[in-house]
């Protein structure tokens, strides 16, 4: 029984600590990933410590109730880097890029339906195909991809200047587009643009 619990714990921790695509590229987890991490780590804690099982001493009861919460918080903090973008997990930051990025659609304060087309304009740079994600030697500062975030959560790693977003919830939203290197890591000056719009 004890061996099985340690096996379950090891597998669950390995899954929780494996970086998500958002964490690997931006150094942070999306809200959905953070919520799923909390849920899985909480379930793991319950399986390991079985707080419903009767114990004789008060200290044992407190331990059985407190340890699941501590484990869930610790695993979540380790698996996610927070809600703000930061330096990627590799610690690599590319030199500044001369590229300027502009969002031409949607326009600021535009009222849209639940389906929105994002159109960006790159000045001094170009988007490369999805197959070009590795480089040898110096990373070109005028070629790369576009990372699209909605309300701070990464929703797409775009390989064109036009992206369709579907099923957006009613209310105000902020779209952010960041030009990143061909290996998906950021440039030092982080060329980006944002637009606020409202879905009816």
Low-confidence spans = 18-28, 80-89
Distance between the termini: 54 Å
Radius of gyration: 21 Å
The total of beta strands comes to: 9
CATH superfamily of the largest domain: Immunoglobulins
Please write the string of helix (H) and strand (E) elements. Answer: HHHHEEEEEEEEE
Quick tags:
Immunoglobulin-like, 6-stranded mixed β-sheet, 4 helices, 200 residues, alpha+beta, 2 domains, 9 strands, 3-stranded antiparallel β-sheet, single chain
Explain this structure to me?
By secondary structure, this protein is of the alpha+beta class. It has two domains: 2-79, no CATH class; 100-199, Immunoglobulins (Immunoglobulin-like, Sandwich), CATH 2.60.40.10. It is built from four helices and nine strands; from the N terminus they run H-H-H-H-E-E-E-E-E-E-E-E-E. The strands form two sheets. Strands 2, 4, 5, 6, 8 and 9 form a six-stranded mixed β-sheet that branches. A three-stranded antiparallel β-sheet has the order 1-3-7, with no helix packed on it. Strand 5 and strand 6 form a beta hairpin. Helix 1 (2-17) runs antiparallel to helix 3 (31-49) and helix 3 (31-49) runs antiparallel to helix 4.
């Amino acid at each position: 029984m004890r061996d099985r619990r340690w096996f379950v714990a090891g597998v669950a921790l390995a899954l929780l600590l494996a970086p998500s695509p958002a964490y690997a590229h931006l150094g942070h987890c999306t809200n959905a990933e953070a919520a799923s991490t909390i849920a899985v780590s909480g379930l793991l804690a319950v399986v390991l410590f079985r707080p419903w099982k009767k114990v004789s001493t008060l200290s044992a009861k407190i331990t059985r109730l407190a340890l699941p919460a501590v484990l869930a918080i610790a695993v979540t903090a380790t698996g996610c880097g927070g809600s703000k973008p930061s330096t990627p997990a590799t610690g690599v930051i590319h030199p500044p890029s001369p590229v300027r990025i502009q969002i031409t659609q949607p326009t600021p304060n535009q009222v849209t339906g639940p389906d929105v087309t994002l159109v960006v304009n790159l000045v001094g740079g170009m988007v490369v195909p999805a197959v070009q994600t590795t480089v040898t030697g110096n990373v070109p500062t005028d070629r790369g991809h576009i990372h699209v975030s909605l309300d701070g959560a990464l929703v797409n790693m775009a390989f064109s200047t036009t992206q369709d977003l579907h099923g957006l919830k009613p209310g105000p939203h902020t779209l952010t587009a960041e030009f990143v290197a061909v290996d998906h890591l950021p440039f030092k000056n982080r060329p980006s643009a944002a637009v606020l719009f409202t879905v009816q």
